[in-house]
Structure formats: structure tokens, C-alpha cells
Queue: 2 jobs
Job 1
Amino acid sequence: LFLWKVKVGLPPCRHLIFPTPIIDKAFKVDAGLVAMGEKEYGPCRGCHGGNVVSMGMAPDLRASAVPLNLDLFRQVVKKDQV
């Protein structure tokens, strides 16, 4: 219901959180693995966001150490265990 003459303000916006990306300087991008990963994990962007910038549905992966550790990644993503 929208009333034109009612002068009610919007509630204040909650504080937005911008995660600090974890940068691994030793990490090297492998174009072949990127292409394979796109096919396998492309649907994950629905919740984690494009370029892993989440809109709040799921954790923002830029600030997660999980993708940097293959064993932990397998536990979380493949076995759904944390």
C-alpha cells in the first residue's frame, strides 16, 4: 500500500560490511583450471556473487581462506563439512 500524503521516512540503513580480501602473493592463475572451474562452480555465483563479491546470500569469498587451501576447500565444497 502506497499513500502519497503520508510523510514517513525510510528506516536507517544498517552498517554495510565490506570484507578485506585475502591476497596470496604466491597464487598463480592457471587459465585451464579457470575454464574447468567455471563449468564446475559457475552455479555458485548465484549466492556467492559474480567475481565472488557476495550480495549477502552467502559468504563473500574474497575474505575466505577456504579457496586458498585445497584440502579445506574439498571438505567445505565437496563434502559439505566445516
Job 2
Amino acid sequence: MRNQKAIGHVILVNLKKEKINMKKKYTVDEILDKKFAIMLDREDETKKIDVPLTQLPVNLKEGDIVELEFKENKVIFAEVDIKETRKEREKVRKLINKLKNKSTDLKGF
């Protein structure tokens, strides 16, 4: 069972209870006060963790996909997956354009 606590509106998983010696991908959902990144588990985006920005790559942005590895509740490996981040951003861009076009098409009604 996971140990969870709430900070504001975010449920944070206590990494001490997780199997943490493996690499796993996360999406940067939000950056709080230039101190923490709220990360969504790519396999189950209902699971969120907060990670100090000091343990993450410099110039990290919301929407970046990051591969992380933890040991003793600390990040020991962090790398932005540039290829996957670009692919996801392109998917979002296409979806936004599709929605915009549908909105434009409906204006004639």
C-alpha cells in the first residue's frame, strides 16, 4: 500500500514505499514556486509525485517527459526524453488545430 499525503490539491506518493531502483517515465505537469515539479506517472497519470527542481535537469518545462530513477528517496538519474516530448507536443498541437478547425466549421450554423 502506498503512503500518500495531500499538499494543496495534489496527492503525493511517498517514494520510500515504492520500488525505487528502476527507471520510470514521468510528465512534468506543473512547476510550483520554481522549487518543485509535480510529475505524472506516464503509466498511470492519476499518480503524482513532487520532485525538487534541484534534482532535475536544468531548463525543465511543463509538458516535458522525463525518465527518472530514485534511490533512497533521491533522484539518481534524470533525463528529458526529447524525442518522446516532441512527439507528445506534436500530438497536442494537432489536436488543438483539429478543435480550432471544428470550431471554425460550426460558425456557419
